[in-house]
């Protein structure tokens, strides 16, 4: 049984800043180095890439989730994607430097975050394989199972972008239900 998120984050308490951001705030731009990890207290974030001027949503994050461009955060390489708020958010942030300091001082915590990275990698693979195996209808149904509240909180064009379809196609899928 894993530790609760509160217990997991307690070693970072003295380094955490609470910030409130309005909807549509870009927290990290694709191509910039990620220097901050975000923990969502309230609200919704998305990650997205720019493909020839078109935004393609890659993931959604809700209350209790943590997000950063983890590859960039850990390696100082440019981020492969942007992070943006969809709703007004209350976030808790920890800097890359402070994060590194805490996990260097606490090897068990370092191991837990390595496991977290593995789970994120697995989730990324699951999403990629879903695009190869499943129809847009199946991907939509899977998304609704994972986040039943998503249709009330996330604009349809972001959901369509995530599914790799147009908003019109998403509307047709939703009308079949």
UniProtKB/TrEMBL annotation:
Residues 15-120 form the Cyclic nucleotide-binding domain. This is Crp/Fnr family transcriptional regulator. InterPro entries: cNMP-bd_dom, cNMP-bd_dom_sf, RmlC-like_jellyroll. PROSITE patterns: CNMP_BINDING_3. Signal peptide: none annotated.
């Amino acid at each position: 049984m894993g530790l609760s998120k509160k217990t997991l984050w307690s070693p970072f308490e003295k380094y955490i800043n609470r910030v409130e951001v309005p909807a549509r705030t870009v927290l990290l731009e694709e191509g910039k180095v990620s220097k901050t990890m975000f923990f969502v207290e309230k609200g919704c974030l998305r990650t997205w890439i720019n493909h020839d001027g078109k935004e393609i949503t890659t993931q959604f994050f809700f209350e209790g989730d943590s997000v950063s461009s983890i590859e960039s955060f850990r390696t100082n390489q440019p981020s492969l994607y942007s992070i943006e708020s969809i709703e007004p958010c209350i976030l808790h942030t920890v800097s890359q430097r402070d994060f590194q300091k805490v996990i260097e001082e606490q090897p068990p915590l370092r191991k837990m975050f390595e496991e977290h990275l593995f789970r994120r990698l697995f989730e990324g693979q699951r999403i990629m394989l879903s695009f190869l195996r499943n129809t847009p209808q199946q991907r939509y149904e899977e998304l609704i199972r994972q986040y039943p509240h998503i249709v009330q909180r996330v604009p349809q064009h972001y959901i369509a972008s995530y599914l790799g379809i147009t908003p019109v196609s998403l509307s047709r899928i939703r009308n079949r239900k």
